[in-house]
Model the fold of this input.
Amino acid sequence: MKPFTFDQIPIMMNKLHDKLDHLEKLIVQISITKEDKEDILNIEEASKLLNLSVSTIYSKVSKREIPVNKQGKRIYFYRHELIQWIKSGRIKTYLEIENEIVKRSKI
Done:
């Protein structure tokens, strides 16, 4: 690996961020096996997974804020859908936002 200059640090950080982002996505894909995708939870299990009260989950279901499956009067949740729902609310860091701006300005 060749040494780089101070001016190249932002570019190197951007490349490093992209590589880490790619690795994170690969790890998530590997960790969600077929069994995990089909892992069905009832409301009590979903409550434990999300660390929310059952009544809060019922409230989110009625407001259509959380992914749910309904069979008759019973509701069920897929573990992987709940995990993806949690991840969808992730707030980006300033560095991530800055890197996206740099990426878009290069296009």
